[in-house]
Amino acid sequence: MKINHLNLTVTDVAASRAFLETYFGLECRAARGDNFAVLFDDDGFVLTLMKGREVQYPKTFHVGFPQQTEEQVDRINQRLLEDGYDVKPPQHAHGYTFYVEAPGGFTVEVLC
Asked: Is the pLDDT of residue 1 over 90?
């Protein structure tokens, strides 16, 4: 059995969608204005975004985007940094990893 769908409630669907498309290659295949979007990755995983007024995920909640190499992790980190996101350099922890606060109120981990 494999999980193939996740719904995130976000404060800004358009900004969350643009972030996920720009940095992680997700593709929006359906949307209802600024209230709902359906994104797909290249493996068929479905990520839906629903607008909520107040979003408060637990402190440790995050969505992970694994990469194949440390160089890919570094490239994403550098691109986010250049685009003004508050990201720390990747570190070797449970993998080579860093976290970023995504627009819309959720955290993303990039790792290999």
From this structure: no
Q: Tell me the CB-side half-sphere exposure of residue 62, using CA atoms within 13 A.
A: 16
**Residues 72 and 25: beta-carbon distance below 8 Å:** no
Alpha helices in the chain (DSSP H): 13-24, 70-82
Beta strands of 11-95 (E only): which ranges? 27-32, 36-40, 46-51, 63-66, 91-92
Domain locations along the chain? 5-51+61-111
pTM summary value: 0.95
CATH number of 5-51+61-111: 3.10.180.10
CA 55 to chain CA centroid, Å, is 15
Based on the number of CB atoms within 10 Å of its own CB, is 62 exposed (0-12), middle (13-18) or buried (19 or more)? Answer: middle
